Structures are given as C-alpha cells and as structure tokens.
UniProtKB/TrEMBL annotation, chains A, B:
Cofactor(s) needed by this chain: Ca(2+); Zn(2+)
Name listed for the protein in its UniProt record: Ribonuclease J
Top enzyme class: hydrolase
Principal location: cytoplasm
Subcellular localization, as worded in the UniProt entry: Cytoplasm
Protein EC: 3.1.-.-
Source organism of the structure: Acholeplasma brassicae
Family membership noted in the UniProt record: Belongs to the metallo-beta-lactamase superfamily. RNA-metabolizing metallo-beta-lactamase-like family. Bacterial RNase J subfamily.
Length: 568, 568
C-alpha cells in the first residue's frame, strides 16, 4: 500500500484538490494513518461560458493513484460546488462508500441517475448523532446552518487530536430549519481542537450575516404591497427560501407555480424531505395559473443569476413558452449575483425594464436575500468556540484566506500556526506541529456537460486562440516525388477576414505559400512536416505584417503519388 | 440636399448613434433646420475581450449618407466614450469643424496624431463664454463638473426653443477645478428650456455623489498613516485625482513617479494645461525611484480596472520590468470597477495578496474614489434648475433611462413629455410637441485596435462559434470529371477533440465523408457547392450524434482535372 511519501510517520496530511484560491469545486483530502478521507467533490462554474465548457472539476489523479486507501467520500451538504464532481470522481476512482445526510442524499442519488454508466457506491446516510470508526479515527458530525438544509461540519477524532472541517456555514440564531449544534462546537473546543478548517467565503465582510428568517419576513411584506403578478427568482437549492416564498404567497392569498427544471426538482425533493410544507392548494401547476387573476399568482423560477437558458431569462427576453412578462408584473430577485454573473443579471434586468416590469433586487431598499456564508463576526464565533491550536482557512480566493488568517490572529492564534494553502499544497500535522510538506498534483479539468467528457486544457487554449483572431487554412496539393505543386494553393479563412473584398490579402498569402513550397522543394530532404512548419512560421509573419493580426495557421498538405499525377 | 424625411417642416430631430441603452460610445445627433450637429463620437470597451476586438464604435452610416449637412462635431469632454470614435468617424465622414475645449483639445489632437492617414479637420477651441451661430441657431456652452476637466453642457438656442444636452456631470460644490456655471443653468431655466437631455449613468443611485475634494482629503489621510511604499492606481483621464495624489505625496514627504503610457501622457497634458501643479522636485522619473527609501515613494500607475497589460497588473503578476511588489507595499485603488471589469480587478487584487501586499479599495472603510456622474439628488437639481418642457434621459442602459424618467416625473414632468429611446430611434420636436418619428440605421462596429480596421459582425459570429466547439476541416481531393476520390478524406480538428486518442471518431468522420462524396457522385449534376453543403450538413449531424458537440465544419474540396490525374 503506497503511503504518501511527503508525510512522516504519525503525521496527518491535509490538502485540497479544489477550494483553495478559488470559490468552488471543493475537494479536501485528509490522510489519517492508512486512510484517505475525501470531503466533498464539487464543480466550479466558469465566469465565461464562451469557450464551450460548462464547468470545471478538480484533477482527481491523486485519488486515482491512491484509491486503495480511500476510506470514503464524506459530503458536508448538497450544493453543486460540493457534490457536482461526484459522477466524474466515480468514473475514475473506486469509492467504497459515500457518507451524506438528508437532502444531500436525494440530490446525489438524482445526480447519479442522470449520469448513466457510473457505478454507484453505497450511500450511507449519516445523522447528527452518528459516529463511524476507522482504525483509531472517529468520524462524527456537527449540524450547522447554511443556505441549504442538512449542512454538517465534519469532525475527525484522531490520535493526534481533533480536526474540524466546518463545511459552509453561517451563524443563524433564527434559522428556518433545525438549529445549529453550537453545544457540540463548544464541546470539541473544550476537549481541544488540534486543527480547524473554516469557510472563508465572506471573510472580507464585516459584521454578521443576516438570518434567513429576516429575508422571509421582508419578502412577505413586499408581497403584501404588490397588486400585480409576482415573479420571484432564487437559487433552486435554497429550500428554506422556497418554503418562505410559499408561506409569503399563502399569507397574501396567492397561488404559487414553479418554473425551471431545477426549481421543479427542488420543490419535489423539498416536499419529499419535509423541508417544504405547502398548505393544501397553494401550489398549482403551470397550466393552472391562467385560471387566476395576476394579483393571485406567484411564479417561482430559476434564473436569478441571469443564466441564458433559465426560466427568468426567457421570460425577460420573450422566449418563454408559457409566461409573457407584462406591465404590472413585479420581478423579485431573491438572490445576489455571484461574481462573474453580474453582467448576465444586468442584461436580464434591462430586458425586464424594456417590458415595463417592476424589478426588485436585494439591496438597501429591500432585503430579499441573505448569504449562506458567515461574515467576520460569524467567523470570530466559530474560532472562539472551537479554539483551535492550528488553523487552515478554506473555501475562498487567496485574499479571502488571508483576511480570515488576519482575523484568526486577532482572536489570538499564532501566525505560525496558520497555513495559507493553494490546491495541491500538502500540510502535515501532528499534535505538536504543523508544516508545509510539499505538493501533490492538482489542477482544473474542463467539462462539457453535454459532451463526451472532459476537454483538455490544450483544446481550451486552441479555442481561445481561434476566438481571438480566427483561422487561416492553407491547402497545398503536391507531388512530393516530383516536387511539384499540382494546384494553386487554396486559402480559407474563418473568423479572420471576409474572403470577399480581401482578395488582395488572400492572393498575397497564396503567393507566399507557393514561394515557401518552392523553397522547401529545393531542400535535399523534402518533408511534409518541415513544409508545414515553414508555412506556419512564414505565413504567420506575412499575415501579421499585412494585417497586424495573428490567426491560427492550419497548413494542409495533400500528397499525391506520381502515379496519381502526371501533369505535363 | 437630402432632408431627413422622418421630420416634418420645422421639426427638430434628435437621436443617438450610441449612448442609449448602453454606457459608452456616445454619439448624439441634432438636426436643426438644415444643419446636423454631432455631439460626441465615443467608443465602448467590451465586457469580454475574448473575441479579439478591442472596442466598439457607432455605425456612422447615417452621417456618411448625410455628410453635406453636417455643421460640426461638438465635443462635451475628453473621455474615450466621447472622443474615442473620432478617428473612425473622420475616416468615413467629412467633418468641417470639431468644437472642443481645454484638455479635450489636447487629447483629440494626440489621438489624431496616433491615427496616421486621417484628415484632421479644424479644431475650434471653444470657451465657456463663446457663442457660435448657424442660421437661426445659436450654439453655446455651460461648464459643469465631471471626473475630467473642461466638461461642458451644450446649449442650442433654436427657433423652437432651447435644447440643452448636459454631457456627463455631477454636482460638486467643492470641485478641485473651476466651479460649474449653475447661474447659466438657472438662466436657461428662466428663459424656458424646450428639451433637456441629461446623463442617466447614476440614476439608480440615491443621494448625492461625493465631492472630488473629499476623496483627496481621504487619500492624504491614508498616505499619512502608511510607512511603506505606496502604489496607487486611478483613471488616467482623472487629472483632478492625479493632482490630489501629487498633493498628498508632497504633504507626506513622498516623491511621485508615474508608470503606464496613458498615465504618463495624462501627467504631461495635465501639467501643460495647468491642471496639475506639482511642487518642484515632487515628480521623479522611473529611474530615480531607487534612490529613495520605500516610505518616501508614491507610484502612480494605470491598471485600476485590472486591464491585463496595464502597469498595476504587471506589478501584481510579477512581469513589470521595473517595479516588484513586495511585503510592506500598499496598493490603493483610487477607482471603482466599471461593470464587466470586476473579475479582472479581483484577479489583480488576489495576485497582490499573494505577494503579501496590503490592498486598499474604495469602500465603507476608505473613500478612495468618487463617481463623476451625478446621483439622484444631482439629477433632481439639474431638472429643477432647467425646468424643461420635454425630457430625454441619455447615457445609460435602458433601466437607468427609466429610473431617470421616474425621477423626472416626481419633479413634475408629464410622462408623455419624456422619451425613452434606443440608439437609432428618432425623436421629432417642435415648440409644442414631441413625438417618435421612426428610426435611422444604428448599430455596433467592432474595432481591432491593432488591426486593419473594423471587424464585421459575421466575423465575430464565426469567432464565437469557433470558441465554443472548435472546428473540423474535411479535405477531399477528387477528380470531378471522372467522379473519383484521389485520396482518402483528411480530417483535421482544432479546439474540438485531440486527434491522438480519438482515432475512432476521426476515422468514422472520414468514412462518413467518403460515403457522402460517393452519394454526391451519383447525382446527374455533380457540383462542388452541393458537395460542400452535404458535407457540412451530414458530417455535422454525424459528429453531434457521436460527441454531442457542434464544431464548425469546414469542407475543402481540391478538384484536380483529368489531366492532373489519371490514376488507374
């Protein structure tokens, strides 16, 4: 059994394949004695969808190489940036068991159904009070609050001490679902936490993150003032928000219909798990809404991030099959734009204004959203309750990790006891010390959700090049034996210049190509490879000189044997 | 002389070729009697630089078609979104005179020097007290405050009444430069303004826009607390800000060096025009900074928007030739990210944190920036002083225009007297009425700044396609007369799949192509065009089926005549 050679005897290894230096694709690895525990396997949605991939997953190569030691995959909660990578992980790696809880189990099972051909491991549904033993290590759980139900922090009781991984959390004293287990946090704090790994997403935000309950109240108040149809968009995973929107509709005499595939599924799972309790008759089908006047209708839909194909975007741009936005409607964004999505959200809002729809966004005027991640006071509480000896800020871009470090230092943690890590950086830990132990392979794998699988970074690079200046293909048909061109060079351009109207440029390129071929023919050893390289280099320079642009040059050489060709 | 047929006798035409429904590429047209007045000719920087163009200019076709009636181009101020399109306009259209003032004149002249081969018209340097007469129309100017010196609102006194175009403005009672001419605003208000066109950029922001002076004070206070090197980035056009940074350096015993081409030029122009007055010895050259300890140095640089090639970005990513960021340095962003640039700014900040540099951004903690555009109170004052009969909100996305309309209605302007327009929409106006008169041609022209000129939208579309799924080229060498393939089809892919490892897919595509060719050969009338179309359609379907992707299919048919080829 191959041990991690970066670790000394007795040391615990902690590192991430995703989630450090970025927000998304969380995947943390804990190597304790002979066991590897994988915590979460998420995806990351790119800022820019232009390059034809839908999301990014971690490079799981380390787990492929060490799969015989994997004790299990432990899921903190059911958000895509924590479970979205599971099917891809399972395709590559044999995972004996997945430990997940509540709504996360439903979401994972649904996800695996959608990915045919993935071998489904046993899913162990853990509860707050469960404990699992692996050698001398005990795995247990602490319920915390987040923007999805059933989010648990992960406790490893090891021979060296307690390691606590918070997952994503906020401090919410008036949550919509079950309360967080603050007593357990205090208890491990009293026992002594060797190392805390804590969520840094909002480490730059001062103060407290408002309670989910206050948002529900604000939404109900807004509903009370509106007299037209309400269209409200939120994250499909925020089942608590959905419940509060159902309640607000009920309190204000409105029926609610759900639009958007992921929202419909969330409503179904939310009702199955009991997190959504709709009074009878409140939820109506898409077809039924026409039976009610606008002031008695709430439309709950996807698209709060301006995603082009989501229900709200289609309603905004007029392509939705069933819902036409009209004056009198009010669209409420019960969400905040995730960085990178601001442009898409703005576009959607602008289209709604064009339809004379009133738009309400979260802001100083209306509290229609709150974050699921703790602000600085929440983080202070976590550090104060658990009082760790060593601290690793996780989940966040580099600057967020550093802000979280500074905050921990204010709480009294020694700077040398805090590790700021990148994906792949290995921290080695024992009861006395923490150290940087080196690196393992980590990186980005691009996934085309609809396609045959992953897209290599070289392909992404080619797409980027093609997108910037287009391409120029030069096709040469020649007789390599008799060293003759059989036809004039053909020049084809896409995304570079119009062929029509630029005949001077294209014929100059063809002439250049001919000149290069004739030069190459004069070599003693004429090779196609050499000819192609010359075409790429020299045509590229020639085009740059003429146009100041650098399209991708694709030389195509069609060699016909002498027998094929005996042109006189 | 071709009149605008959309206008009735006596009507004034008002429309935009850019600036309505967007922030950027401002270009407003006023048709008064037989004269066309063009106000500003700007460019727009795209959110996404991936498609290989640098900016967007208005489609000037209307001006090409009506150039004999153009009385002049009037420039409100020297920002790129108001002057950046001038060289492109001049390439297409004969403009008799450009009217510009102060620093805008320098910036335009510099711009025209950079664009060789553009015929430079006479630049008339107007002053606040000047008046120019065109038939029965009088052109005059009102100085207002903005984030660049010498910003003027444009007054047309016409037979029908006064039309006032604000340009970009904020209300600043303690400006760094000359005061705004509020008296003139009140005066035209008292005379009666027929139509006001007013800046809507900040129509969604409640309250007042803070004074430029408060930012200078805050910056000087921050400087006073810092003990290491200061690197401060701002907009190169904000000469007032630069002046205040020079002052803050002087007050705190620091020398200041300027980095970044546009910032160096701005410093030069600012000193020439007298807007920047640096105490002797404060400004030092790039080479001299090494002579001073870090606590005596301020580096003023470009890159406040995270632009990849700007000085700050290079300092952050370690590729700057002269400046290496190091622990102890403080980077101050005296700016706010323009929508679309947030990601780039975040990337720069993250890189700076990796170098253990302290970063200060504008926010609740530090007032390091203020907008040049008036918030809602500023807009209320403009409307209240000028008391227009008709109102056209300009400069802004559709929702900003509508917010500005709502605000004007609160001030007491009749909803029917307010026009919400898109680029190309023509408003016709006389002393009694305002109406929508139809449309003229308007749109986006993509410019590759380093290239041979404009890039058509079809080219942009091709680049977008190429960027999404790459390309697949199928090369067929055939003898059309004898209806024979001379070689096996060659398949080339870029940005689609790796050729290596996917031989099954490529050979299946080649086989499909062969099958298509043989089918086409069976037609009575075999044509290359028909063959290419069949390849595109059928290979596309075949590839979609195999891979779920839709690369661009580029068929290449090399026809060799019978004489070329007599394969047995």
């Amino acid at each position: 059994m191959s041990r991690n050679t970066l670790l000394n005897a007795g040391e615990i290894g902690i590192f991430a394949l995703g989630g450090l230096g970025e927000v998304g694709k969380n995947c943390y690895i804990f190597e304790i004695e002979d066991n590897i525990f994988v915590v979460d396997a998420g995806i990351l949605f790119p800022d820019d969808s232009l390059l034809g991939f839908d999301y990014v997953i971690p490079d799981f190569q380390y787990l492929v190489d060490n799969q015989e030691r994997i004790a299990g995959l432990i899921i903190t909660h059911g958000h895509e940036d924590h479970i979205g990578g599971i099917p891809y992980l399972l395709k590559q790696v044999n995972i004996p068991k997945i430990y997940a809880s509540g709504i996360a189990v439903d979401l994972i099972e649904h996800k695996l159904l959608e990915h045919k051909g993935v071998k489904k491991p046993r899913i162990v549904e853990y509860k707050a009070h469960h404990t699992y033993t692996f050698g001398s290590t005990e795995l247990s759980f602490i319920r915390l609050n987040h923007s999805i139900p059933d989010m648990f922090g992960i406790v490893f009781k090891t021979k060296e001490g307690i390691i606590f991984h918070t997952g994503d959390f906020k401090i919410d004293y008036t949550p919509v679902g079950p309360a967080a287990e603050y007593d357990k946090l205090a208890k491990i704090g009293a026992e002594g936490v060797l190392c805390l790994l804590s969520d840094s997403t909002n480490a730059e935000r001062e103060g407290d993150t408002p309670s989910e309950r206050t948002v529900g109240k604000a939404i109900s108040e807004i509903f009370g003032k509106l007299t037209g149809r309400i269209i409200i968009a939120t994250f499909a995973s925020n089942v608590y928000r959905m419940q509060q929107i159902v309640e607000a509709s009920y309190q204000n005499g409105r029926k609610l219909a759900v639009f958007g595939r992921s929202m419909e599924r969330a409503m179904e799972i939310g009702q199955q798990t009991g997190y959504i309790k709709a009074p009878k008759g409140v939820i109506v089908s898409a077809e039924e809404i026409n039976k009610y006047p606008p002031e008695e209708i709430t439309i709950l839909c996807t698209g709060s991030q301006g995603e082009p194909m989501a229900a709200l975007s289609r309603i905004a741009n007029g392509t939705h099959r069933q819902i036409k936005a009209m004056p009198g409607d009010t669209v409420i964004f019960s969400s905040s734009p995730i960085p990178g999505n601001q442009e898409g959200v703005n576009r959607t809002i602008d289209q709604l204004y064009r339809r004379d729809v009133t738009v309400i966004v979260n802001g100083p005027v209306a509290d229609t959203h709150t974050s699921g991640h703790g602000a600085r006071n929440d983080l202070r509480l976590m550090l104060s309750l658990t009082r760790p000896k060593f601290f690793i800020p996780i989940h966040g871009e580099h600057r967020m990790l550093k802000h979280h470090r500074d905050l921990a230092m204010q709480i009294g943690i020694d700077k040398n006891h805090i590790m700021i890590m990148d994906n792949g950086d290995v921290t080695a830990l024992n009861k006395n010390s923490i150290r940087n132990a080196g690196r393992v392979q980590a990186g980005d794998i691009y996934i085309d959700g609809t396609g045959i699988g992953d897209i290599g970074s070289a392909i992404i690079k080619e797409r980027k090049l093609l997108s910037e200046d287009g391409l120029l293909s030069i096709i040469l048909t020649l007789d390599p034996v008799n060293k003759r061109l059989l036809t004039e060079p053909t020049v084809i351009s896409r995304g570079f210049i119009y062929m029509k109207g630029n005949e001077v440029i294209t014929s100059s390129i063809a002439a250049k190509a001919k000149e290069i071929v004739n030069l190459e023919f004069q070599r003693k050893q004429f090779t196609e490879t050499q000819l192609k390289q010359s075409i790429i280099d020299k045509v590229s320079d020639h085009v740059k000189e003429m146009t100041q642009r650098k399209p991708m040059i694709i030389p195509v050489v069609m060699s016909l044997t002498q027998k094929d060709s005996n042109q006189s």
